[in-house]
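Record format v2
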Amino acid sequence: MKALLAKPWIWSFIAALSVWLATIAVTRGASTVGLSQAALTFAAFSVLVGIGQMFVITLGPGNIDLSVPATMTLAGTVTLKYMDGQNGLILQGLGIAIMVGVSVGVLNYALIKALRIPPIIATLSMSFIVQSAAIWTNRGLRIKPPQVLADFTTLTSFGIPNIALIALLISILAWVLLHRTPYGRWIAAIGQSLPAARMAGIAVDGCRFVTYLLCAVLAAICGYLLACFSGGAALNMGTEYLLMSIAVVVIGGTAVAGGDSNVPGIWGASLFMFLVVSMLNTYGLGAGVRLIMTGVIIITVILLASGRKAGAR
Amino acid sequence: MRISTDTLRLAVPVVSLLLLLAGVFYLQPRAMSYTGLNLLFNLAVPIALATIAQMLIMAVNDLDLSMGTFVSFVACVAATYLHDTPLLGAAILLAAIAAYAVMGVIIYLRDLPSIVVTLGMSFVWAGLAVLILPAPGGTAPEWARAAMISKPPLMPMAIVASAVLAVFAHLLIMRSSFGVLIRGVGGNQRSVLRAGWPIVAARAGAYALAATFAVAAGICLVGLTTSADANIALRYTLLSIAGVILGGGEFTGGRISPIGAVIGALTLTLAGSFLSFLRISPDWQIGAQGAILIIVLALRLLLNRLESKGDMA
């Protein structure tokens, strides 16, 4: 029990669970299944972008990928346009989404490395260009996703939404990558001290390149799935995922200063972020109060989580 | 003659601003007039103020993701309370500045990531703004309106205000002992602490001063637009960060340049006008803005190279 409480990710789960209980206490158990399934589905999208962002944040201070929303939008619009509602093109569509991610990732890192621009600004400038490309391809288009894929993203197997299963699979892969491969050790080392990692002979540039690539690809896949889930791509479909991807990583217990990351916490934090909004909706509060409450809750969670760490030290 | 590093640091923003200005004049010679210049730079004044605010936060190695929502909140207060009941309005704004100071102290004392705390606060400010002004509206205080449309002799108001702001911020942050203390906290907090300086006071001061500039930004914005909206300044968060970096500031180490930051903000504003004069398709407007950002930063790299070559000689 003590070992469990010492885990940095446990707090995000406790927070998510208490919000869940507070919500179903009001609905008196009605729509509990619906709420849980919706939470898992929407959390899954945050988890997908959150994992990519987590790898980037692990690289150390200043490493944040702001091009996530634009990449999601571009991948969503381009793939839907390509698939044009035909079930036979689903796999090719996924391939194109990955290609979009790869190109954005390569360009992002090219800017960071060749021009030595701070990553936040490099990815920000890149996101402007990617967003423009999305606007250009999207031009008044309203294409429906292939029926099979739309069904797959909205249905459940064994009571768990398919999207959540995919996110779970990717989370497990991310966990293995982080804790059981040299790559995971390398990016943690880079995040703790870049000069030290370089002296230790780690291929710093290679690692950082792969990380930005990974983040962009995950964002692109998330955009592809989200566009199919919501029945079409929209130009603002990625907007809320900018702050969301950062928030779930940090609330989940990953060190903002880098070098210490944490996959399970992203799930807790993603569920928490969705459940807070639905709890406040259930209580029937106005938009203003809901926003204030969301902010207060985020700050409270980060205060509690950091208080534990200070005590443990 | 040896050029000092600070001068060289300032050279890039100045050169890029002049190049853009030359481009605008070439495309639209009529902009080369009192009214033309005022129209070009009008919206730059609030952005420059917000950029100085962000710069103060970045000077102590933090980052403020709530700048946009905070300026929107101030704009809403200015268009309602400050207009109808000036005393109450002023009290609300003072309380908001105090909240910023408290936030700075809490971030330091609890060793919290500023990104997450300001992210949480951004929801709080957005919520308050929605509560104050559920629909766009309100009226700008007469004095703010008068100040923003005033026509000083020789130079348009926008240029005069930017110049005054640049000189004032430079004196305040680069020439005062308080400014040195703030930049010292950003450079090496521990050594400042060992030298016996009150870090808590320095951080509270930096945050309060930042909030003061942000309040000024909100009031100026309302003076320009005459009414407010809860989402009026959301893009200021990213604009202000980009402005600081464009102006030669850095994310860590207390390396900032107030004059550069003001010029960075002017450059960002001008980039928008330049693109509309170029008659680029609206689809690519945002993308071209990203491209300009990248070109300016590439220019800076080039000059930095020259600088290091000069050191070797």
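The mean pLDDT of chain B is 85.
The two ends of chain B are 13 Å apart (CA to CA).
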